[in-house]
């Protein structure tokens, strides 16, 4: 596997936790830990994508504009912060 060196910024507490895991020999290195975490994350994304695809097939496909508007209204009534963020981004 070809590798490429990059720079990332992470929370200082996360870095301390990763280094503790490496120090306890539960991971070979910080890079190995990060590579493993990325592999798991990519697998999770692929799995959720497959799950969503299956759910959409079973439910009749993606939401219509009317269904999305109804859902947006329900979430707005509840004060859902994620919904408010999506409205600001649109």
Task: Describe, in plain words, how this protein is organized in 3D.
With 90 residues, the chain is mainly α. It has 2 domains: 51 residues; 28 residues, no CATH class. It contains 4 helices and no strands. The longest helix is centred in the middle third of the chain and has 30 residues.
Short description:
With 90 residues, the chain is mainly α. It is 72% helix and 0% strand.
Describe the structure using short key phrases:
90 residues, mainly alpha
β-strand number:
0
Query: Could you name the ranges where pLDDT drops below 50 across 5 or more consecutive residues?
Result: none
Range of helix content: over 70%
Bulk shape: elongated
The percentage of residues in β strands lies in under 5%
The largest sheet is: none
What's the end-to-end separation, in Å?
Answer: 40 Å
Rounded to the nearest angstrom, the radius of gyration is 20 Å
> What integer is the average pLDDT?
89
* Domain module count: 2
Output the helix-strand order: HHHH
The number of helices is 4
- Helix/strand/pairing category: mainly alpha
Which SSEs are present, and which pair or pack?
Blueprint: H1 12-23, H2 30-59, H3 65-78, H4 81-89
């Amino acid at each position: 596997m070809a590798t490429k060196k990059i720079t990332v910024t992470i929370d200082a507490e996360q870095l301390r936790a990763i280094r503790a895991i490496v120090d306890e020999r539960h991971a070979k290195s910080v890079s190995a830990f990060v590579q493993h975490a990325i592999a798991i994350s990519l697998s999770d994304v692929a799995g959720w994508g497959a799950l969503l695809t299956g759910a959409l097939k079973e439910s009749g496909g993606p939401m219509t504009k009317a269904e999305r508007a109804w859902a947006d209204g329900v979430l707005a009534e509840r004060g859902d912060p994620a919904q408010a963020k999506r409205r600001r981004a649109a």
